[in-house]
Write a structure and sequence with these properties.
With about 625 residues, the protein is α/β, with parallel strands linked by helices. Helices cover about 35% and strands about 15% of the residues.
Length: about 625
């Protein structure tokens, strides 16, 4: 093993199986054999064979995911930024495997392979393969390596589709899964782009009905155009504008001909030419068709039925500028997993890189992927460690106000909330921040917790802590969550920033048997005094912002909340007034005046509890 972050020099290996008469049965009904799988491994398999990670490549990728095949290689493997000592997939800890997919052209059996029955390349006589067939072949490879279960399976784009196939086709073989920039099926737009790419290859006169390998140069122009078209879908408007704009490549004036002169044109020309030298046109046809055929509902009827089979923890990642696999498709999968009560985390990462962000957003992905895999097994969740952004509890409680904080100072409400929740409960924490409350609950009460959070930085911190977290907006509701599916729903010091608090509380009461809500009391005597004596908007421990930069939308007091519950038939089971030092006598006697915050336990029962007010 190396210590410089590189996987070092790695060797491409092969595994052969399905020799006749025991050919591999494909989803299309055909049989194929023999089958060769090309693969690389990084790190060492431990004695219990429990540290295996399977990396799955995208459309035009291969088995060479990290390190170098030769000392003079000009560049490392395609995901070298993520695989190696000390990286997200730490090869000092994990045994990482990456294989070229079935149907590929980089060592695994595909259309360019010699058909033993004819002595010629299969070409278009090669049977159509599916994403499921790819996973089946990978499963055979793992059996060859003696690996029964995977610690993690991870991939982006077409690799993400393979991840989805793994967690539904072989759910018992996967502890955790990372699906990046993928979808449960290609939408019409993605199919359309793939179709045009295939047509460009088949329309090339050198294609020769797929038999170009018997002589001639092959459909270089058609394959180049297909790559150029595909590459456009991998980028984004922001990237194109920032990188190229309308700049001319090597002239100051238009040439008034049809040669490539804009910088973006010559860039695409280069991408197409480079691709022709390393990829087979027939494999491009087969791989894009496999992506188009992929549809989880075809096999299982509905997305919910498919994800009902999942047994692993799942991390789903999308990118804000990805228009090939837009975020709504990842959100659909996340919501389906939530409806099935699966352990899922989701983040829509802010990026201008488009679909290619899964290869380029290195810093964010290092933290998300590394944090997630570290807690892949249930017994490893919430084993909090120090990170650059997560300090120990004492330091966190005294940390300076962050740009995303709505609260400054010790979280006295957290201590109380932990005491209020029964051990082993199922808890949903809305506006969970960096996951501190859920971490405490997991460690002290062994709860099964999930957070809802908007801020990307907080989501990263949650994942690093082993907290399951969903990027979502409570103002848009919790429709993906079944009614009464949580024992407790908590909303700590967040009610005042919600756009539609009535709707949010109604949703909380629907999905939770009990709800715990804390908020700053705007009727606290210090706030009254500041307003009376200075005539200015108050700035306090619980209200640390100036009026023009505050995230607070709703101004409410203890009395306001009591009245709200009374008007909406919400039962107040407990009311606990607090000050910075806890619950003092004055706060208990006259909470609307002397409590600077309050914690409530409420439930959706048609019972009203009357309270006196000051």
């Amino acid at each position: 093993m190396t210590e410089d972050g590189s996987a070092g020099i790695v060797q491409l290996k092969t595994f052969r199986f399905a020799d006749p008469p025991d050919e591999m049965e494909l989803d299309c009904g055909s049989k194929l054999g023999p089958v060769t799988m090309a693969y690389e491994t990084y790190g060492e398999l431990n004695s219990g064979k429990s540290n295996a990670v399977l990396i799955l490549h995208a459309l035009t990728g291969d088995a060479h995911a990290a390190g170098f095949n030769k000392p003079d290689d000009p560049a490392p493997g395609w995901w070298d930024a993520m695989i190696g000592p000390g990286k997200a997939f730490d090869t000092n800890k994990y045994f990482v495997i990456c294989s070229n997919v079935l149907g590929g052209c980089r060592g695994s059996t595909g259309p360019s392979t010699i058909n033993p029955a004819t002595g010629k390349p299969y070409a278009l006589s090669f049977p159509l393969v599916t994403i499921g067939d790819m996973a089946h072949a990978q499963c055979r490879l793992l059996e060859h390596l003696g690996i029964e279960t995977l610690l993690c399976v991870a991939g982006g784009s077409m690799g993400g589709m393979q991840v989805l196939e793994w967690i539904t086709r072989y759910p018992e073989k996967v502890h955790s899964a990372i699906c990046i920039a993928a979808a449960p099926h290609n939408n019409a737009q993605a199919i359309a782009f793939n179709t045009v790419g295939r047509h460009s290859i088949q329309a090339d006169t050198a294609f020769q009905n797929g038999n170009y390998q018997e002589g001639g140069e092959g459909p270089a122009q058609g394959l180049s155009i297909a790559r150029m078209l595909g590459h456009i879908t991998y980028l984004s408007d922001e990237t194109m504008r920032e990188k190229f704009g309308r700049a001319l490549r090597s002239a100051s004036e238009y040439s008034y001909d049809f040669e490539s002169e804009f910088s973006v044109e010559t860039y695409l020309d280069h991408q197409g030419e480079k691709f022709v030298g390393r990829f087979d046109a027939n494999s491009y046809l087969y791989m894009t068709k496999a992506c188009d055929y992929f549809d989880m509902t075809t096999t299982y009827g509905t997305l919910d039925s498919a994800f009902a089979r999942v047994q692993s923890r799942v991390l789903i990642l999308s990118f804000t500028s990805d228009w090939l696999y837009p975020a709504y498709q990842s959100q659909e999968m996340t919501e389906s997993l939530m409806r099935n009560r699966k352990d899922v985390s989701y983040c829509n990462i802010q990026s201008n890189y488009g679909h290619d962000a899964f290869l380029l957003e290195v810093d964010v992905l290092q933290r998300l992927l590394g944090g997630f895999i570290k807690h892949s097994r249930p017994e490893e969740k919430c084993q909090i460690e120090k990170t650059p952004d997560i300090q120990d509890k004492a330091n966190t409680r005294q940390a300076p106000l962050s740009p995303n904080s709505i609260y400054d100072g010790p979280r006295v409400d957290y201590d109380l909330i932990v005491d209020l929740i029964r051990p082993g409960s199922r808890v949903l924490d809305i506006g969970c921040g960096d996951g501190e409350l859920l971490t405490r609950l997991a460690q002290q009460k062994q709860i099964d917790g999930t957070g809802i959070e908007l801020d990307e930085r907080n989501i990263i911190r949650c994942v690093e802590r082993g907290i399951s977290v969903i990027q979502a907006d409570i103002d848009k509701g919790l429709s993906a969550i079944p009614s009464q599916s949580y024992d407790y729903v908590t909303l700590s010091m967040t009610l005042q920033v919600i756009k539609e608090p009535e709707f949010a509380i109604r949703e909380m009461l629907r999905v939770g048997k009990k709800c715990i809500i804390s908020f700053p009391n705007f009727a606290y005597w210090k706030i009254r005094a500041i307003l009376a004596l200075t005539g200015k908007a108050p700035i306090t421990r619980n209200l640390p912002y100036s009026w023009y930069s505050t995230p607070n939308r709703s101004v409410l007091s203890v009395k306001d909340f009591r009245q709200f519950c009374d008007n909406h038939n919400i039962r107040i089971e407990q009311e606990i007034p607090l000050t910075s030092s806890g619950s003092g006598r004055a706060a208990r006697m006259f909470p609307n005046l002397f409590a600077d915050e309050a914690v409530y336990v409420v439930s959706a029962q048609n019972v009203k509890k009357k309270q006196s007010t000051f």
